[in-house]
Amino acid sequence: MSHGASVCCWPRLYTDASIIRSLASLDGSFSSSRAAIARLDRAIIVAGAAGEGRLDLILTLIRRIQTEFLSYTRDSFRTFSSRQMGDMLRLPPSNIPLKSSLHRIPALDPPPSFMAFQTTFNRSPLVLYKYASSWPAINEHPWSSASYLRFIAGPARMVPVEVGADYRADDWTQQLMNWDDFLSTLELNDYDLPTNLATPTAIGSKKVLYLAQHNLFTQFPDLRRDIVIPDYVYSCPQPPSDYPQYKPPGNDEQLVINGWLGPRGTISPAHTDPYFNIYVQIVGRKTIWLAPPYVSEYMYAFDKNDVQAHDSSNPASNKANPLTSNTSRVDVFTTVKDDDSPRRFPAFWTNVVPHAISTTLEPGDLLFIPPGWWHAMRADETSFSVSMWF
Ligand SMILES: O=C(O)CCC(=O)C(=O)O
Ligand SMILES: [Fe+2]
């Protein structure tokens, strides 16, 4: 067997074994049906439904099992109220100013043409407020409605979630979880979070669940029809001169679309990615903090040794640990008045903060981030965002 074949045959074997096993153990009972669907979802999540036509086959099988044995009916005339998940309607609409940035992210109105984006506006971050306000995901198919999200999935589906608000925490882990149960946690939103959205550590102990960086659209293709992929992602931008590590995603489309769904208080600590990113806010408000690639040496990034220590402390994880040397130790969202951040990270406060920019996105707002820019996100309410890496 060649090396190439050995790299890609295991996902195919896993996928086919999962299909056969789920069908073999299916006896029409409620529990065997749910177990079969879970196994099929796992083949998508863990092995990418590898192999010619396997994704379509798996999605068709899941739908058949749902309709035959779990009384799922697809009533396309249903309408969904845009009742918000969680407690977002109860929160005051004021922004919490960040101490860690002095300026706002520049905004453009009207949005640039494709050509103007390609030639001029893809060099630095940019917000297009209300760009996506008329997307189905915000209107007739509201992703803020847990009942809509349950409906398009049908019963017994599984998704990967991160456990713990912040992936730098020692007890952070990941698990597969029932989609309906995960949505219920967002509806209840009984996490008892501090109302001042204090540091990630304070929130981390609450075991917040975050569906982060997951390609939901492979599992639930209906959701892809609720968004309108902006043409900008098909531009071929120049690699930025201050960030030679830029590399487009390695899939055929050179485009990776991920969903990010979680309650108030979920945080992605400041980190860099090697992609251009178009990030659209669909549900709830999210505060964004950005800093340019040239401040990297003042970001107190984790080094390789920290990363290894963290990895080995977390053997239960089923996905690669995202903590790498592109992640900062600094809590850019710190709101505690006299914390010791300026003493622990003096170069950050002197050299990064003057160059950092921030804003709070609302549903329909689009944010563009070039590769290599440091970015940190905080959900101020139950939040659903979509990132498009290209
Ligand atoms: O929304 C988040 O929590 C993080 C998003 C992010 O890091 C990205 O889109 O690259
Ligand atoms: Fe990122």
TrEMBL record:
What CDD domains does this protein map onto? Answer: cupin_RmlC-like
| A Pfam match | Cupin_8
Q: Residue limits of the JmjC domain?
A: 209-390
Protein's name according to its UniProt entry:
Clavaminate synthase-like protein
Q: Which organism is it from?
A: Lentinula aciculospora
